[in-house]
Each structure stands twice: as structure tokens, then as C-alpha cells.
Amino acid sequence: MAIASITERLEILADAAKYDASCASSGTAKRHSRDGKGIGSTQGMGICHAYAPDGRCISLLKVLLTNHCIFDCHYCVNRKSSNVRRARFTPKEVVDLTLSFYRRNYIEGLFLSSGIVKSSSHTMEQMIEVARSLREDHGFRGYIHLKTIPEADPALIEQAGLWADRVSINVELPTDAGLARLAPDKDSQQIEGAIGRIGDAIVEAKDARTRFRHAPRFAPAGQSTQMIVGADDANDSQIIGRANRLYDRYRLRRVYYSAFSPIPDASAVLPLKRPPLMREHRLYQSDWLIRFYGFSVTEVQQAADEGGMLPLDIDPKLAWALRHREDFPVDVNRGSREMLLRVPGLGTRAVDAILRARRHQRLRLDDLGRLTRSVTKLRPFVTTADWRPTLLIDRLDLRHRLAPPRQMELFG
Q1: I need a surface site. Which of 13, 38, 55, 399 has the fewest CB within 10 A?
Q2: Cα 200-204-207 angle, rounded to 5 deg
Q3: Where is the Elp3/MiaA/NifB-like radical SAM core domain (predicted)?
Q4: Please, what is the average pLDDT of the chain?
């Protein structure tokens, strides 16, 4: 039965978009409409987000152009063999919705993805028309994120970067074998080829802007990707390794992780249960260790067990520290920034505060307590002017003492 109402279609297509986690909006260029030209604005530090109870970002109008799809990816609720209600917007309807929601102060931008209808290139043309119309016809200066389609004509993918602040292409699964088994219509080389072309275009555009002030911007907020966790048998070490290769090769802004969620009429090749949400959280923590704490990929992978899985009861930094007790304790009054960042319980802000404070005085344990949230986790791993952990670092039950109390999952 046809879905006639805009409200009904919005309900369907907004719900179908919830599985895409990569909707952050940081890093774009500053734009505003204070001169009376156009509508909307962005800020250089990104958009202020609101979050749904499940943790998903909802500050953008996050919607699919359509959930019709000619592909049959086993893990996707919108695959062609799935028995779900279908709906479709025209580009003009998405433009009107975006402007209407913006004027009501509901949103500050648009995140647009889509199932594949007719062909990849046809669908990509429709999505580009939404972004073009917002920018050219309505002077929209808010944030736009387009989820591009790697199977589309490369020229169309390049057009997307001219209208959108951020573009993204999902690698879908951590391993080529998993992708071939669960998404037979997709090709990993084609996906990475498209990501690579976008990365090159971003670099070329930035270089052009340094030489020509009016050179067009291309995806100023960069590109991101997403991997589904737990749909195949890839372990955490493999996922961490794949993410790092993507960062190194294509200068991605972010790699997002999305814990597999069982879907209606699921394929028999999929797991019956979703992985713990804590697994997704631990992968994000490992991502932070590599990007902001100076850990190498190999070091983060050393935090995993023999099966390549990160522990769920403790964070990866603590797991690494427990396996490398010979590197501790670290003297907070003498230790390098690199070593202080490896102390469990010390974040980047706390380390910077310690480095500033110790220029003026020798830090004691009480001083450390004022510069950090808690010294309980720090005690075995640091020395101060009045504290030495003696044999605490060698205790066999140290992991048990430091692991937080187990909390049951709300939606377990």
C-alpha cells in the first residue's frame, strides 16, 4: 500500500536511518547568514548535538531519501528481500523538510543517506540534487552530510563533495571475507577506491585554496566511514587494524563503529544476538588511544586477549598497563608526557594540567587528586613527592581491584 502522507514517510525513513552512526558534524568551515544572504550557519567547532536515549545523534535531520534497495545485504533492514514498509521522498520534499525544520529551530543541518533505487548513479544524482538545491536555490549555509554510494559514477561522488560539508562511504564490515559473505553486491576494492578518490580530492582542494582564494571547497569537514561490529566473526584486533589502515591511507576524519543489531526477518547467516554495546565502546576507546594518546596499533592490540578481543570489564589502556607492569610506576614530577598519557586514569587534559603545575612545585598525591577526577585508579601506576606504590603494582588481584563494578545493560 502506498504511503501518501509526508509524516508517515518521515516516520519510516527517519527510523530506517538510525542504524548509521556516522552523523557527527565537527570540523567544517565557518559560515553564517548575518549579512542577510541565505539561511543557516555552521560553527568551526561543529554543531551542538542533542542525543536520543540510545545515544544516537539527532541534531541533524537524519533521514533516507528512500528505503527501497536493489541490493540484498544480509545485515541491512532495507535489503530488497526484507519485509519492511517502503517509502520514498523526492529531492524537493527533503529540501522542504530541511528548511521547515531549520526554521522551527529543530535542526542545524541535514544527514542524508539512501537505499539504492534503479541504480547507484541514479540514486546519487537524486541526493546531489537535494544538496545543490539547498545551497543554490535557497542559500542554505547549514551543515550537510551526504552518505555517498561507492558504486556510483566517480564524477557524481566528486560533485557530492562540492555541495556537502562532509561525505562518507561505509566500508560496512571489517574484513573482505565478511563483506563477500554478507554483502554480495558490494566490492571492498571498489569501496576503498571511492574513499581514496574522495581523499585525493579533499587534499587537492585544500592545496588549491592555499593558492587561489576563491577555489571551490570540497568536503571541508573531511570524510568518515563506518564498520558494523559483530555481524561477522572479525575480532577486535582485526577491526582496530583495519581502522588504522583506513586512517593512514585515506586521512579519514573518523571511523565509526556500530554494534550489529538483529533486524526483522533476519538472514540465517547472521548472529541471533547482538554483541554487547560495551564492545562498541571499547573500540572507540582504542581508537582514542591511537589518535590522541600516542599508542601504536600493535600496542592497543596487545590489550586484547588470545582471541583478539578487548576485555569488556576494563578499558584498553588499563588492560595494556596490566600487561606492561614493568613500565610503571611513572613519576608524575619527572615523567614525559608520552609516559603520563599511558597511566590509566589520566586523560589528555589531566596530563597537560600536571605538566603545567609541576613547573612551580613538586606534586603530592593530594595535588594529583585536585588535577584529576580520582586518584584511586592512579595509585598503582604513579609516584609523587609523598607516594610510592611499593608492591601494589605487582599484586595478582590488581585487575580485580581496579575493575569497575559490573553494571547490567539496560537493553540486554
Answers
A1: 55
A2: 140
A3: 59-286
A4: 87
